[in-house]
Design a protein that fits this description.
heterotrimer; A mainly alpha; B alpha/beta; C mainly alpha; A: mainly alpha; 2 strands; C: mainly alpha; Arp2/3 complex 21 kDa subunit ARPC3; two-stranded antiparallel sheet; 12 helices; globular
Chain lengths: ~325, ~290, ~350
């Protein structure tokens, strides 16, 4: 070893203290590091999964992405304008049907939609059921105080009750959120993202913005990989004991390191673009063409939007 | 070869200078400095730029691609000096970018498009080819490199070998006369590295000028007719036929391209200066 | 803080979309001038960075974790206008590809997180770091203060947008159509969380990252400072002032135009609503009455436009506070710059 000029110190030759691999029965608290790693890899996994669904030959996958975005935005606005919970429920059911017709398993679809936004909405809407939060006609009176009760400057009223308005409002709100989120998820799952990006041009999003969005999406994955490496390296060096203070230092240190790497990468990407002729003016090839089914889809969306809004006003 | 006259330099044929690098120096706060480097590259030549990490070979390639410019001295391509000012000229810049292609060492920096197809189309599109021709070229390049199964994939889900192939395809679709390759085999599995080496030989045989910056002496031996060694002092340490340079053990040792180290062959460990050349072939199949 | 679809009415969402157009235009123009052709990849990777750090869990005292948004951090490194673009792009990708934040609500999210947060945060940082040497303690402290201000401004705007839903969008019978909580509930709830906890997480993260950069990569912090030096002192005020002016003009206009247009508020409904709204607001106005005694506008009679007026008033008030603060801050920085 002398020839290589490297000598291994004595302590490095010894076995680690307590080299036996044994369990001591104590559970390690999942650390921020682990939680972040699983969050990062989840994002990667779900994007690969979406990509696969978007490649399936389903109904929505075949629709021109430009028409699909316009159609879905129309439907989102329609959903936003509906007052009737029944029509909202019908529209929600419609999205599940669309998912099934687009070869997206309804079980997966419903789960993906409800976790996490509509579920979260369901929880935060709860207080508004009660008359002390939002006034209304009592539907179920839970507790009659017998007199007006004050809490500091607030007048709570003379009873605690679930109101008719509160319940209706909660149902409308949660259904509206669920139907809206379903549409957004359907759009994402059924469209390959390069197509989704190109479709943004319909909205006169400037080319350079589309370029930036596409590059951002692409480099998110590189940075996710870099971040995962940093966190994984940290985890492998940790026996599981680290104070929140150390964790904070580590996490913010990683952010700083990542920022430095991002900046250097940005310069290099720019050089690579210039090398292939980029001069600040992005160009794209448009390979979309409208087919009959796209027009049928557009017509269906328009009719549906008018029908539900009209129907809502009649019921309403 | 009518295209060659666009730049206004002399007509390029076999034997004419594509690049004239004269007393180029470059200093940068970190690595990659150059000190008084001079050489010429003739059309159709296949040149290896050899040097250890930080010897400045990447910097030199970037200069030859007009991505950075020398602090002193000059780089002339096709008879025209490369400077910020000359690259501002749209006509020159377009012609230069069409004639010189650069494959970066870091494929992740080079692959920035949403899909493989668009990645390959980026160069031809931005170099103002007709849409029909862009499609033809992309399809042809995809076919040559056997990338059909990847054409709609996003580049970030590819393996590093696939990424390198796509990066090469994105440059070949431009069909440049001069190819600058920065460490093309670094980090690749032996099979892909071998594929790249063979492809480079074929491109050189087809008349392309190929300049490869590398520390992989086996690759240099396989693809280059001539080699330039950059020393650790950032100066030219040697320049000549590849066979002669690669046979000069002292030169290679001084440039830190070969080393005295223990390593194992078929389970047998031994120590001696070695160059991964005559005595042993690691990885690269012929 | 990302508003999902369904939380705000299409009318509000549309108004906020319209409002972002001049902001994006200004940001695009400013960023282009500052960064030239280099902008595309740099902004893209800045946006990717923003996206990724939003996923980092930060341990918070008390045993739970939070996450930072990094709006002020990005503004400190890239400059405020480039940050507006980078954050917008990150928000678009979150909405389109990851379902984080709604599509219709994208305009609102871009206004709060993509515009108000980095711009307010950045100028507060500028005030507090004036004359501070690069690498000094005051620089990273100022970044923290800026981040705290930035995220709270964003939270306030979000709360106002959500709060007006509960107060002004309901069925004839009084059931909420969108988010059911009024201004008097949404604003205190949101601000309580952000003033006490979330704001400090954002501040700590921003400070620590700036501290890290001071030690390891000071060039990054200098880059934004240098591009700033190139600009004349007074010039800086203009786009900001114009943007805020447009906000104040367009928000109420958009609401006035869109509310009757959608046929939501026939005179009948408004009369019914008006019997209810001021009552509800009075009831919960306790907390606010000290600060804004006339908040619940009079008009519980037949004034059909009183509801709209209250709505517009609240919007102007919210935006007014923000823009006043920003204006004062910018004024202060500009003044001191001249002396320097």
């Amino acid at each position: 070893m002398a020839e290589a000029g490297l000598s291994i110190p004595e302590w490095m030759r010894k076995k680690p203290i307590d080299a036996g691999v044994s369990r001591n029965g104590r559970r390690r608290r999942t650390s921020v590091v682990e939680r972040t790693i699983s969050g990062l890899s989840e994002a990667l996994r779900s994007s690969i999964f979406s990509e696969r669904i978007a490649a399936r030959p389903g109904l929505l996958q075949r629709i021109d992405p430009r028409i699909k975005i316009l159609g879905f935005l129309t439907l989102l606005i329609a959903i936003g304008l509906i007052h009737s919970p029944f029509i909202l429920l019908g529209l929600y059911a419609g999205t599940v049907l669309l998912a099934a017709m687009s070869r997206i398993s309804p079980g997966y679809f419903v789960k993906r939609v409800w976790l996490f936004i509509p579920l979260f909405t369901g929880v935060i809407v709860l207080p508004s059921l009660f008359n002390i939060i939002r006034p209304g006609d009592p539907l179920v009176t839970l507790w009659d105080f017998g007199r007006d009760v004050h809490l500091g400057p607030w007048l709570l009223g003379d009873s605690l009750a679930v109101t008719r308005q509160g319940a209706t409002g909660a149902v409308i709100f949660v259904l509206r959120v669920a139907a809206s989120v379903s549409l957004a998820v359907l759009l994402t799952l059924s469209t390959r993202w390069p197509d989704l990006l190109k479709a943004l041009r319909v909205f006169h999003v400037p080319r350079v913005f589309v370029l930036i969005i596409s590059m951002t999406y692409r480099y998110i994955f590189l940075l996710l990989g870099l971040a995962t490496d940093m966190f994984t390296a940290r985890r492998s060096r940790l026996a599981g004991v680290s104070t929140p203070r150390e964790d904070r230092r580590f996490v913010t240190g990683s952010m700083g390191a990542l920022l430095g790497k991002s900046q250097a990468l940005g310069e290099e990407v720019y050089a690579a673009m210039v090398s292939r002729g980029y001069s600040g003016e992005p160009r794209t090839l448009n390979r979309f063409s409208l087919a009959g089914r796209d027009l049928v889809f557009a017509a269906c969306v328009a009719i549906l939007a008018v029908a539900v809004i009209g129907g809502d006003r009649i019921i309403g | 070869m009518a295209e060659n006259n666009q730049v206004g330099g002399p007509a390029i044929g076999e034997g004419n200078a594509v690049y004239e690098v004269s007393s180029v120096s470059y200093s940068y706060e970190e690595t990659g400095a150059l000190d008084d480097v001079t050489f010429e590259v003739k059309a159709g030549e296949s040149l290896a730029l050899l040097g250890a990490n930080g010897s400045g070979k990447s910097t030199l390639l970037k200069m030859m691609n007009a991505l950075i410019f020398p602090s002193s001295g000059s780089v002339r391509a096709f008879g025209e000096e490369l400077s910020e000012e000359s690259l501002q000229d749209e006509g020159f810049s377009l012609a230069f970018r069409r004639r010189v292609g650069f494959v970066f060492q870091n494929s992740d920096a080079q692959l920035f498009s949403p899909s493989v197809w668009e990645e390959i189309a980026f160069g031809p599109l931005h170099l103002e080819l007709e849409p029909g021709e862009v499609e033809e070229r992309v399809e042809a390049t995809v076919h040559i490199l056997g990338l059909e199964h990847l054409r709609d994939r996003p580049p970030f889900h590819l393996s590093s070998g696939e990424k390198k192939k796509v990066a090469l395809a994105s440059v070949l679709a431009i069909s440049p006369e001069v190819l600058l390759l920065d460490e093309p085999t670094a980090g690749l599995d032996p099979k892909t590295a071998g594929f790249l080496a063979r492809l480079t030989v074929q491109l050189a045989a087809a008349g392309k000028t190929v300049i490869t910056a590398t520390q992989d002496l086996a690759l240099a031996k396989e693809v280059a007719g001539r080699a330039i060694v950059l020393g650790e002092d950032h100066r030219t340490a040697g320049d000549g036929p590849a066979a002669r340079i690669l046979g000069n053990r002292e030169l290679l040792l001084s440039a830190n391209l070969i080393h005295d180290h223990p390593h194992s062959h078929a389970g047998m460990e031994h120590y001696h200066p070695h160059s991964h050349l005559e005595e042993h072939h690691h990885g690269d199949e012929h | 803080m990302h508003i999902p679809d369904g939380y705000i009415s299409p009318q509000t969402a549309g108004g906020l979309w319209a409002l972002m157009v001049p902001v994006w235009y200004t940001a695009g123009y400013k960023a282009k001038r500052l960064l030239k052709a280099r902008q595309a990849p740099l902004v893209a990777i800045g946006a990717a960075f923003t996206f990724v750090i939003m996923m980092f869990n930060i341990p918070v005292p008390g045993g739970t974790t939070g996450h930072a948004i990094g709006g002020t951090l990005v503004a400190v490194v890239l400059g405020p206008w480039t940050a507006v673009i980078a954050l917008t792009v990150a928000l678009v990708i979150q909405a389109l590809f990851f379902g984080d934040g709604g599509l219709l609500a994208l305009g609102a999210n871009c206004l709060n997180i993509g515009f108000a947060m980095p711009v307010a945060g950045y100028y507060v940082y500028r005030v507090f770091s004036l004359g501070a040497a690069p690498g000094s303690a005051r620089q990273w402290l100022a970044a923290g203060v800026g981040a705290y201000a930035g995220i709270n401004v964003a939270a306030f705007l979000t709360a106002v947008q959500i709060g007006i839903q509960g107060d002004f969008f309901q069925t004839a019978a009084g059931a909420a159509l969108y988010s059911p909580y009024g201004l008097s509930q949404a604003v205190p709830a949101m601000m309580a969380a952000h003033l006490t906890l979330v704001g400090f997480v954002e501040a700590a993260v921003t400070s620590l990252v700036v501290l890290y950069l001071q030690r390891t990569n000071p060039g990054l912090l200098l880059a934004a400072a240098e591009s700033k030096k190139a600009r004349a002192g007074g010039q800086r005020l203009k786009p900001l002032a114009i943007g805020l002016l447009l906000m104040i003009v367009f928000v109420p206009l958009g609401l006035l135009a869109s509310a009757p247009a959608w046929g939501e508020w026939g005179p009948e409904e408004i009369r019914e609503e008006l019997g209810f709204i001021p009552e509800g607001m009075e009831r919960f106005a306790g907390l606010w009455s000290g600060i804004l005694p006339d908040y619940a506008l009079p008009g519980d009679g037949g004034e059909p436009w009183a509801g709209v007026a209250a709505y517009v008033f609240s919007a102007i008030l919210g935006l007014g506070i923000v823009s006043l603060l920003t204006y004062v801050i910018v004024r202060l920085t500009a003044g001191k710059d001249v002396r320097k």
